[in-house]
Each structure stands twice: as structure tokens, then as C-alpha cells.
From TrEMBL:
Protein task: Component of the mitochondrial large ribosomal subunit (mt-LSU). The mitochondrial ribosome (mitoribosome) is a large ribonucleoprotein complex responsible for the synthesis of proteins inside mitochondria.
Record localization: Mitochondrion
Broad class of the protein's primary localization: mitochondrion
UniProt name for this protein: Large ribosomal subunit protein bL32m
Keyword flag Transit peptide: yes
NCBIfam families reported for this sequence: rpmF_bact (TIGR01031)
A Gene Ontology molecular function term of the record: structural constituent of ribosome
BP GO terms, sorted: translation
Pfam families attached to this UniProt entry: Ribosomal_L32p
Record's keyword annotation contains Mitochondrion: yes
């Protein structure tokens, strides 16, 4: 009775061989495809797709954010202070921030200079 319903189920009669799968996966139409929307990065002049950040600039951002994350993870909220939700990042060589800006925030001091691409926060009171 099940043999009569094999048409309804849509099950292949024979197993697909590996060469057929490989030729379907790596056919000549899929080997080389042109990449559209390539642009040049204005800071480092690397070529990358327009909807992404270039790899060299991302490596700089990733290194800085991992340093900030390490500083944040060294903080133990259960020793002495309550846990704050917001963080104020202060780089080496910057003036002390006004009390109104730092009010209620944790201050993370980074030992390097502020990169030019890193967004400067407004220090207005």
C-alpha cells in the first residue's frame, strides 16, 4: 500500500551520486561571479564592498573595543560600588570631564591617545 503512495510523497527513486552533487554545486556558472559595488576606503585606500567597513579599519576598531571591554570586565560591581549602566571613556592626555557629563557613569581610563576616527563625546555641562 505504501508503494502506491510513493508518487504523493515526492521521494527520489534513486540516490543522487556524489559527482552529480559536486557538478551542481561547483558548476561553471558559479565559479566566477563579478563583485559589484566596490569602493575605496578614504582613510586607508583598501577596496571593499560599499555596504561594509574595510578590514584594516575594522581591525583598528576591534582592537580598541576589545581594550575597552577588558577594562570593563576587570570591574567587579560587588566590591564597594553599585553597578552602573553607562560608561564614560577617557583617553590619555584628555582634560578631566565636567561633573555633569560624568554624573552617575563609570569612568574608564584608556592608556592610549584618542584615535582621530573615534567619536568625541560632547563635554558640555
Amino acid at each position: 500500500m505504501i508503494e502506491d503512495f510513493s508518487i504523493v510523497f515526492g521521494v527520489p527513486k534513486y540516490r543522487t551520486s556524489k559527482p552529480k552533487k559536486v557538478t551542481r554545486k561547483f558548476s561553471f556558472t558559479r565559479l566566477l561571479q563579478p563583485i559589484d559595488n566596490l569602493v575605496t576606503c578614504p582613510t586607508c585606500s583598501n577596496i571593499h564592498p560599499s555596504d561594509t567597513i574595510c578590514n584594516a579599519c575594522y581591525a583598528k576598531i576591534h582592537a580598541l573595543t576589545t581594550e575597552i571591554k577588558k577594562k570593563m570586565m576587570n570591574y567587579n560591581p560587588y566590591v564597594g560600588e553599585k553597578q552602573d549602566k553607562e560608561v564614560f571613556v577617557r583617553f590619555k592626555g584628555e582634560p578631566e570631564a565636567p561633573a555633569a557629563v560624568v554624573k552617575g557613569k563609570r569612568v574608564l581610563e584608556i592608556d592610549s591617545e584618542r584615535p582621530t576616527w573615534f567619536k568625541k563625546l560632547t563635554l558640555k555641562e
